[in-house]
Amino acid sequence: MNTVLKTDLFSEKELEQYAEILIWGVETARQKEFKLGEIILIKSHMTAMPLVRVIHKTILLRGMNPICRINSPSDMEYNFYDLSNENQLTFIEPGEEELLRSINGIINIRAPEALTHLETIDPENINKVVRSQNFLKVIMNQRQQKKQLSWTLCGYPTSARAKHANLTLQEYANKIKTACYLNHPKALSVWKEVYQQIVDIKKWLLSLNIKHLHVESNQIDLKFSIGNQRKWLGLSGRNIPSFEIFTSPDWRTVNGTYFSDQPAYINGNYVKDIRLVLNNGCVINATAEAGENFLNKRLNTDAGAVRVGEFSLTDRRFSKIDSYMADILYDENYGGKYGNCHIALGAAFDTAYTGNQSLTKEQRLDLGFNDSAIHWDIVNTEPKIVIAEMVSGKKQIIYENGQFKY
Asked: Cα angle at 287 between 303 and 289, to 5 degrees?
């Protein structure tokens, strides 16, 4: 039976291209093509079913095995955090670990029907869930290092996202099409070209042998060391879209002030105008115009939640994202007039290490790779200058006016 896919937001061709790009993203992240019979998990909200159906069909046509899992709607998610006792909050579904040890890829489609539905929930309840599930992230990372598993994230337009971004639903969908090159007749070819250009910039950054970075904007004055045996990452396939180029600095060396001029919707909460003061790698003062209670409780998730796990820059020449999207996946890749930088509080990326990435806890500590159950990207879109000091002592502007000085 042939089922005709109908959606007012995307054409069938656009959805087919989106599916193709996402599978390319997972394969690129894995650094290994999928084989017949391998398993791909599709995680999604119900809103994104038009895209889920196309991905499911594409996986089947390639001889692999799709598994679909639908996320809880917002009212059920609220009830879970509101009504659960501690045992229920930290409960791990039977078979969850077995599933992660068996699948070969994950495509996570984020399309929530609400963004602020958990604002009345005690943030510590959310922290308990995050901490209890951290071991699953460890399993994923271990299997990723062995090229046994990879994943990618993407977004699908929802009324909630569109409303908070001050766009109509169709305008929001059109922004996604532009950001992901879906309106190009050969979208995947464009992604492959961008991939190579970003590879070239990462090689250039590595060749500079940078020791320290100094980030300056109207409201940022931040200094830190890149750290020993670091490399730059970007467009690994894990996020679609993705234009950022980033690394995990030595968290112990981060000093100064950081400001996020971009609002954040995280775990059902709204946080605006985050201002951080960091001393010897730790946040010693944190304020926000909105959501300050959530911010400070989030910083208490664990010891690493007050430390920096990532520093990132987006070149506006690659990113076609020119407006706020109320989705960190897009907002951390904002191009606009001045590009963006962001830091992430929480977990660092072992993949930023140039050596064997199966690091022990002691090795991570010695190298200054932060460890945490959270990873929270906090974005600044102001015009800025990033000055690099090389090991040789030479100083050079590497980023200005929203683009790398490459």
From this structure: 140
